[in-house]
Amino acid sequence: MPENENIVEVKGLSKKFGATEVLHEIDFLIPQGRIYGLIGHNGAGKTTAINALLGLTDYQGSVRVLGLEPYQNRAELMRNVAFISDVASLPRFLKVSQLLDLLEGIHPNFSQSKALELLEGTDIRLGATIKALSKGMLAQLHLAIVMAIDAKLLVLDEPTLGLDITFRKKFYRRLLEDYMNEGRSILITTHQVDEIEFLLSDLIFIREGKIVLDASMQDIARRYIQVSVREEKLNDAKEQKPIYTARVLGQSIMIFDGLPEDEASELGTTAPPSVSDLFVALMEREPAGTGAVQ
After folding, report:
1. 214/230 Cα distance (integer angstroms)
2. CATH homologous superfamily for 6-89+149-208?
């Protein structure tokens, strides 16, 4: 794949289940070497979008992953795509060694030697059955398997659900340090948005089947600003039309879209909003009807 080519190209993606339309003509791109967070409430359409990328469902619109239409070319596509939906999804009746043998036999880009190298230093025994592993061990095993696949796209759908915070942080840090490179891209959905903020390069917010934000973290930092507003500046701040206002410990917190730093600092103490604060700000707004924020 040529440098800087898009790994994922989605245009006008729609999906209906019966009379219910769960995706409404969404567009987005994922270039090489990027880590995208796909964030939305339950039922927003995240999993349906992922299933379309993975060739697990039909759809309306245009989807290309590594240049292929996923639904008609799933077998070929999955040679270069890895997917984790839940650490509990591994076949629990197998032993660890049997799982590694199975994967080496069915996946052309899986390296058992690489997986064994990644499992060194863990408490996972090759002779242990998967059902006997703790959730933390399952996460370690699942991550080792994924990192042993020479894939160009890794899709993670709530991969650390049910794990404690220690294992969640280890999971993401190892993913960033030992797996990511400029030729690969990662797409993550999760409810623990603050925990993945440190590794994201780009962010997509999806609400009721529509994309309301699609931007790089750098652009977000330049565009949005959070202000702890001084009491005497409340009226001035309101005139600047904040996109979100909350009272926290007796103080007014406002988030602004496009307010220059020097003007914001005159209103109070400024800081970049966290991903979770920005999520609340944009998801609680009334739909503008103008499509995604770019």
Report:
1. 31
2. P-loop containing nucleotide triphosphate hydrolases (3.40.50.300)
